[in-house]
Amino acid sequence: MRKLMQATLGASALALAMYGAPAANAAVPPAPGGGQPIIGGRNATETYSWMVAMSNGCGGSLVAPQWIVTATHCGSASSGRIGSTAKSSGGEVRQIDRRVNRPGTDLTLMHLSSPSTLAPVKMAQSNPAPNTPVRLLGFGCMSWPSCRNATTLQEIDLTILPSGNCRAGGGTANDVCVSGDRTHSACHGDSGGPAVTGTRGDWTLVGETHGPGDNRGECATTTLYTGIAPYLSWINQQIGS
User: Fold this and answer.
1) Minimum mean pLDDT among 36-40, 117-121, 208-212: which range?
2) Nearest in space to 153 (alpha carbons), one of 80, 44, 231
3) What Pfam families does the entry give (predicted)?
4) How far apart, in whole angstroms, are the C-alpha atoms of residue 48 and residue 92?
5) Does the pLDDT of residue 229 top 90, yes or no?
6) Among 3, 17, 70, 123, whose CB has the most other CB atoms within 10 angstroms?
7) How far is it, in rounded angstroms, from Cα 111 to Cα 150?
8) Is the pTM of this model over 0.85?
9) DSSP characters for the chain?
């Protein structure tokens, strides 16, 4: 299965602290802002304390004080920068000392050598229903096929599709399929990063970026996210919750 490749990220720090039950799938409000993010997005309109820019060029999400969720295909990372809208400054930088892969999936947990002091994101207990508004975050390409990487965190508001819409990209019922087209999509450098539902300051992690949702190209298409909810028990077991 094709995967969204890594883009260079600055040195980073990762930490995770698990919140309680996930927030309801409230509508994501349209946010003003400049910039051309992800592909067709905007500069981040808030600081996401749990967003991670990893040293291997991928994204991730802090889910517990010493754990982040990311994509297996991103490979190893030495560190992560947590809670900053700038790719190479701000937030907290933490070293990564080990990783745990979920067999048969593109889901990986990375352990931090020291805890983060920042608030982690809540994790979904069920995959969101089709037509649910969803927000994607990342430092990846802002254009395709001529890639221009973001230095400021980008966000875009799209929609959850039935999982079958991403079957051509290898999606299953355990995955989350997100709408997209040539001008609105995740892209290279967004791998491992979050798809969240909710409202400002109250977000729930529903998926991590895996790859394109169809077989027409690597970007500018629907996007396939590994669902968090189907593996929540495994995640909690690994992080000791």
Assistant:
1) 36-40
2) 44
3) Trypsin
4) 12
5) yes
6) 70
7) 26
8) no
9) ---PPP-------------SSPPP-PPPPP----S--TBT-EE-SS--TTEEEETTS-EEEEEETTEEEEEGGG---SEEEES-SBSSSSSEEEEEEEEEE-TTSSEEEEEESS---SPPPEE-SSPPPTT-EEEEEESSBSSSSS--B-SB-EEEEEEEE-GGGGGGGT--TTEEEE--BTTBB--TT-TT-EEEEEETTEEEEEEEEEEESSSS-SSSS-EEEEESGGGHHHHHHHHT-
Write down the residue that tokens 């500069």 correspond to.
43
CATH 2.60.120.260 applies to domain 43-239: no
Q: Which two tokens stand for residue 152?
A: 């400021």
53-67, 111-125, 135-149, 196-210: which has the minimum mean pLDDT?
135-149
72: pLDDT confidence band, cut at 50, 70 and 90? very high
- Yes or no: say if 200 and 172 are a contact pair by the CB < 8 Å rule: no
> Would you state the pLDDT for residue 241?
61
Dump pLDDT digits (tens) for 150-199: 899 999 999 999 999 998 888 899 999 999 887 888 888 889 999 999 99
